[in-house]
Amino acid sequence: MKKIKNFVLAFAAVCLTAGLASCSKDEKIVEKPVEVIVEKTDTVKVEVPVEVPQDNNWSRYQAIVTDDVKSQKKHDKAILLVAFGSTWEQAYDAFDSTIDAYKAAFGDYDVFLSYSSAICINRAAAGENTDPRFYYAPPFWLNAFADKDVQYDEIVVQSLQVIPGEEYTRVINYIKDFANNANGDLDDEYLANVEIRLGVPLLQDAEEDVALVAKELNALYSDKAAEGVVAFMGHGNPDSYDTYKANVRYTQLEEALQTYSKNYFVGTVDMMNNFKTHVWARMTANGINNGKVYLHPLMSIDGDHGHNDMAGDDDENWNGEKFTPNEEGEVEDTSWKMYFQHLGYECNDDTVLPFGLLELPTVRQVWMNHTQDAIDGEPLDYYHSKNPE
Question: Pairing between strand 195-199 and 109-115?
Answer without folding.
Answer: unpaired
